Amino acid sequence: MHLISAAGASPSLVLQLVVSGVVLGSFYALLGMSVSVIYSTTKVFHFAHAFVYTAAAYVALGTASVLGVPIVLAIVIGLIAAVVLGVTIELVVYRSMRRSGASSLGIFLASLGISIAGPNLIQIIFGPDGRNLPVGNPALYTVGTVTFTTWDIVTVVVSWALIGGVLAMRRSRWGLASIAVSANRELSAAVGISPQKIYVYAFAVGSLLIGSAAILFTLNQAATPNMGLQPVLFGFIATFLAGVGNQKTAPLAGFVLGMVVSLSGIWLSQTFQTAVIFGLLFVALIVRPQGIFRKAAV
Q1: Which of 37, 161, 180, 243 is most exposed by smallest CB count within 10 Å?
Q2: Can you give the pTM of this predicted structure?
Q3: Minimum mean pLDDT among 3-12, 148-157, 209-218: which range?
Q4: Contact at 8 Å (CB) between 253 and 242?
Q5: What is the pLDDT of residues 162-203, one digit of tens each?
Q6: Run of H or E residues at 14
Q7: Nearest-angstrom CA–CA distance, 23 and 220
Q8: Who wins on pLDDT, 273 or 51?
Q9: What's the number of CA atoms in the CB half-sphere (13 Å) around residue 182?
Q10: What digits encode the pLDDT tens for the residues 222-246?
Q11: Angle at 284 between CA 281 and CA 288, to 5 degrees
C-alpha cells in the first residue's frame, strides 16, 4: 500500500491516487471495523490490539520461514494465533481487572502496557530487522496510466469480504446479542444474555480482523516488531470519525480517511501522511465531535 505524491494534478496522477486511495481506504476500513467491533461491545480501548496485529504477522512468518509450513497454512495459523491472543488478553487481563473493580482508565493502561511489552518480546525473539513472507513478488498490472499489483487486489477484496461478513453476522444470534450488550449490559444480563461470552465473541472477531489486516500488510511490506502501533491508531481514528460505538459506519469512515490521505498526495509529499490523518481528526472533532455520520448505530 503506497501513495504517490506530486506537485501537479494531471488527470493520470489523480486517477492513480484514486486507485491507491481505494486500496488504502479498504485497509483502513478493515482496521476501523476491527477496533469498532471490540469497543462498541466492550467499551475497552484495546490498544493491545497492536500486539495482536504484530503477533499474527510474526506467527505466520515463523511458521512459513522457520518451520517450512506452506504459506496458506502459515497464514491460517497466524490468524488463529491472533484470535487466541486477543481472547486470552480479554480473559486473563481485562476480565480479571473488571472483577477486581478496576476503572476504565486502569484497563486502558494495562492495554497500553501490553502494546509496549508485546512488541519488545517479539523483538527479543526475532530481532529488530524487517522480515517478509515468502510469497514472491506480486504481478504488476497496468490499465491505461494506472498501475496496481496482485496484493492491491487481494487487499480490497479480502478487506470488504471480511467487513461484509461481520456486518451480516450482526443479524445472527451472536450479533443481536452483541448489539444488546452494547446498548445495555445490565439489562442484557437480566434477560439471560451473558456479557462475558459476548465479550469473548467480540474479541475473537476483532482479533481475526486485525490479524487479517496484518497478513495483508505483510504480503506487501516487511514486518517489524513495532509495526502494530500505527495501524491500530489509525483504526481508532476511523472509529472516532465514524462516531464512537458506530460499528456499522466505521468501515466507511476508514475508507474516507484512506481516500483523503491518498488524494492529499496531489499537493503534499507522502511524508505528511500522518499529519493529514491527525489533521482530519482534529477538524472532525471540532466540527462534528459526534462523528462525521449523523445517524449513530449501536
Answers
A1: 161
A2: 0.89
A3: 3-12
A4: yes
A5: 999 999 988 888 888 888 888 888 888 888 888 899 999 999
A6: helix 11-42
A7: 12
A8: 51
A9: 22
A10: 999 999 999 999 898 888 888 776 7
A11: 150
How many residues does the structure list for the chain? 298
- For 269, the grid coordinates are 509529499
**C-alpha pair distances (Å), 270 with each of 6, 49, 62, 198:** 9, 26, 31, 40
Question: CB of 224 within 8 A of CB of 130?
Answer: yes
Q: What percent of the chain has pLDDT over 90?
A: 49
CB 63 within 8 A of CB 49: no
Q: CA 242, 244, 248: angle at the middle one, nearest 5?
A: 55
What cell was used for 209?
480482523
Per the rule left: phi > 0, alpha: psi between -120 and 50, beta: everything else, 204 is: alpha
DSSP 117-161: HHHHHHHHHH-SS-B--S--PPPEEEETTEEEEHHHHHHHHHHHH
| pLDDT at res. 3 | 42
Percent of the chain with pLDDT over 70: 92
Distance CA 219, CA 200 (A): 28
Cα distances (angstroms) measured from residue 113 to each of 110, 223, 275: 5, 21, 25
Is residue 44 within 8 A of residue 22, CB to CB? The reply is no
Which letter does DSSP use for residue 222 in this model? -
Q: Which residues contact 226 (CB under 8 A, 6 or more apart)?
A: 54, 119, 123
| Number of helices (H), then strands (E), in the chain | 12, 2
Greater pLDDT, 154 or 186: 154
Cα–Cα distances (Å) from 85 to 5, 44, 136, in that order, read 38, 16, 28
Residue 146 has φ and ψ, to the nearest 5°, of: -100, 135
